[in-house]
Amino acid sequence: MPALDAALNSLLTGEQPGVELITTLLSADAEQMPALFAAANGVRRLGVGEAVHLRAIVEFSNYCRKNCLYCGLRRDNKSLPRYRLTEQEIIEAVDNAAAMGFRTVVLQSGEDLYYTAANIARLIDRIKNKYDLAVTLSVGERGYADYKTWREAGADRYLLKQETVDEKLFQYLKPDSRLRERLQCLHWLKELGYQTGSGNMVGLPGQNPTTLAGDILFMRELEVEMAGIGPFLPHHDTPLKDAAPGGLELTLKTLAVARLCLPRAHLPATTALSTLTPGGRELALKSGANVIMPNLTPLHVRDKYLIYPQKSDIIEHPDRTLKNINKLLAELARPLAKDHGHACQITGR
Ligand code: SAH
Ligand code: SF4
């Protein structure tokens, strides 16, 4: 039996994945990829059901104290006009999300200490008092006390991608972070009872299949409830402007293998993948993904949250996004989830 079939079989029959098994799966060629994607789709169906969950994302500040080499929001990017939404503007964006029927709102920003722990707690409290919405935060590395305050204020989930667990690569890409400290944050989040999301970029300069296997194994070990896996996309105003983007096939393979190793996690069809390739969202939903994150950032600032260029959701009005999603899901015969889509809530079977 060819190595890929053997690796797939052993994973599907319960073998603990290791680096070798994962790198074998990631090496699937054009002929083998359909089998890999079909297996991931089957595991997705059994693990999290047919329904696709929507998470409305509100990008409330593009100020960042960090200088990640890949990201357009890095503090040294002086050509980016910066914005901060007021509490009222954020609440209005959440009002829109609630009115459109979303059950989760994701509040994301650069690492912007302008918003104190108390400010963010107040925001969570206002949202929770007003709506029956799940609240996800994604505001980077903060201290245990801040995470605790927000959890107590009612935050349900937190997204903090490890980006890469290759220590040397991490240090190069995130010069003012430490891998150990970022992983510590993830452990705190788990300990505090957040549904915790991690994830990695695919196609980073200097990355290899072993690095990617390390990311998948890390997320499995941490038992993440969510994993965001998308291609690296070079941004013209960053030191990585001349680097090649992550490839479509490798991104889909990484997503599919992540699904095989994380049967019950929520995996988004990322905006980065739709930006890389029109139709990327559909391909991801057929290869293990079960979440879409439509952009509810107010239109007047949306083009300034430019972590990478040509973000596919920049100009699209949320109404149009929802129409497109409904059309796509009808074509795929996948229902839209009606519940909050908390971890391990299986719907739409
Ligand atoms: N500041 C927070 C959250 C905002 S950045 C943090 O860093 O955790 C959100 C995500 O954007 C990051 O986790 C990273 O994976 C992604 N990102 C940033 N620059 C990117 C690029 N050039 N290509 C693809 N994804 C990118
Ligand atoms: Fe800041 Fe996050 Fe971008 Fe890094 S990835 S520069 S922390 S917004």
TrEMBL record:
Keywords: 4Fe-4S, Iron, Iron-sulfur, Metal-binding, S-adenosyl-L-methionine. It comes from Desulfoscipio geothermicus DSM 3669. GO terms for biological process: sulfur compound biosynthetic process; water-soluble vitamin biosynthetic process. Pfam families: Radical_SAM. Residues 50-270 form the Radical SAM core domain. CDD domains: Radical_SAM (cd01335). (3R)-3-methyl-D-ornithine binds at residue 138. S-adenosyl-L-methionine binds at residues 163, 182, 233. This is Iron-only hydrogenase maturation protein HydE. [4Fe-4S] cluster binds at residues 64, 68, 71. Binds 1 [4Fe-4S] cluster. The cluster is coordinated with 3 cysteines and an exchangeable S-adenosyl-L-methionine. Its cofactor is [4Fe-4S] cluster; [2Fe-2S] cluster. Transmembrane segments: none annotated.
